[in-house]
Design goal:
48% of the residues lie in helices and 19% in strands. The protein has 159 residues and is of the alpha+beta class. A three-stranded antiparallel sheet has the order 1-2-3, covered by helices on one side. A hairpin with a 2-residue loop joins strand 4 (74-75) and strand 5 (78-79). Helix 1 runs parallel beside helix 4 (93-111).
Length: 159
């Protein structure tokens, strides 16, 4: 099966622009993109108001590292530099398109009343310490599934 946007030529800047436009139209009050070249990842954060509260959501995109791409670009006589450069230039394009698709689907589900925004974005919401709910809950998922959800929250208070 072909992966969505596998061979996209859409530049990252266009995908980010479409994501920004989508989030602004939805009511986001702030949007932040962070390129972390050292760790081969990109982060999107956005803030949206909900009544008296403001929620911050964070999405991380992991990119293939140079070492991985060098293996892909290796030929019989060593690394094919032109191909490696093409791979380096293309990394992140597909992931940005997938993020745009996911956000469009999520916001359409919210707008149609299928699910509320807090529920769909719950794993991506950040606390005051910059950790997402998923980062907090996933290590304790067994505890959550064994009993009361309040035990999960009590365990986090000490973190």
């Amino acid at each position: 099966m072909r992966r969505f946007a596998e061979d996209t030529s859409v530049p990252i800047s266009r995908s980010r622009g479409e994501i920004d436009q989508l989030l602004r139209a939805w009511g986001a009050q702030g949007i932040q993109w962070t390129d972390d070249f050292e760790h081969d990842r990109v982060m999107l954060r956005f803030v949206w108001p909900r009544g008296e509260q403001r929620f911050m959501a964070r999405f991380a995109i992991s990119l293939q590292g140079r070492e991985e791409l060098e293996k892909e670009a290796a030929g019989v006589y060593g690394i094919r530099e032109a191909y490696l450069e093409k791979l380096m230039q293309g990394r992140g394009k597909r992931e940005h398109r997938v993020l745009l698709l996911w956000l469009k689907a999520a916001l359409n589900a919210v707008d149609s009343g299928l699910i509320d925004a807090e529920t769909i974005f719950l794993p991506f919401l950040e606390d005051r310490n910059g950790k997402t709910i998923a980062e907090i809950a996933l290590p304790r998922l067994g505890v959550l599934l064994e009993g009361s959800a309040s035990r999960l929250l009590e365990a986090h208070k000490g973190s």
